[in-house]
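DM from R.C. (forwarded with permission)

"hey, sorry to bug you on a friday — could you get me a structure for this? deadline for the figure draft is monday and I only need the backbone to look sensible"
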Amino acid sequence: MSKTSTNSILIPILSKEQTKIALSQSYNLARLTNSKIVILGVETREHPVKKLLVELAKLATLKSGQPVETLFREGNIYDEITKVADVLNPIFILIGITSKLGMGKNLVNNSFRMVRESKHPVITIRGKVHRDGCKTILLPVDLSKETRDKVKKAIELAKIFKSDIRVISILTSNEEDEENKLISYSNQVWKFIKEQGIRCTIKTLRGKDIPKMIKNYGYEVDADLILIMTKAELSLKEIFIGTVAQRVINESDIPVLSFRPVIRKDTTAWK
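My reply, with the result:
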């Protein structure tokens, strides 16, 4: 028997097979964080879940070794997931997604809407095959103030999983001043992570297609998780061409951890 769990991991049912994959990825995380697994089924006319909810709960109880709880709701899937998450305050929401998350006319897509607007960290899982655990974390960094939050989250997870961190920065212009700032900041991040006793490498690439380069480097280093930031509000331009975060989630078979940044003043120095 595990100790009484003080944390929770929320897993909404969106599709049978991909939710099973997301559920399997929660077991090790639940054990390492002493979390209970909460499986949420939201039933609609097109999406019956009662039978599947029972099936998944039995599977999770058998395989996780952690407490498992089920919740059943009726109504709009996105709204109910949001309500439950706000009450539960999970350390992570894990969602298994099967298709690309559209923008533009498909802006109301439940999965991406939840990722973008969630107050809680969301791990999206598209691929079919994943390791049990998290050996390598991919950490893209830039000069935005939000990078500090990503670094802290990467360190937190690396300590839980005993992971390596792969830092990547991408130069998109030929402006020497910008290049120097980004290279300097990336090295500060690398040094800070190393000081925490975590194995870390650093890589600087040059190019314009940031999401593609992040994804491809993730495959190259056999990453288990990519960390990105999301924004609750999108500009008109972002709605029609898509954000870096949205494209990474759309295109990567590597699980992606998305979370919203803490509001703070801009900085290009780590400390």
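R.C.: lifesaver. The two ends are 42 Å apart (CA to CA).
me: no worries. Confidence is low (pLDDT under 50) at residues 101-108, 234-241.
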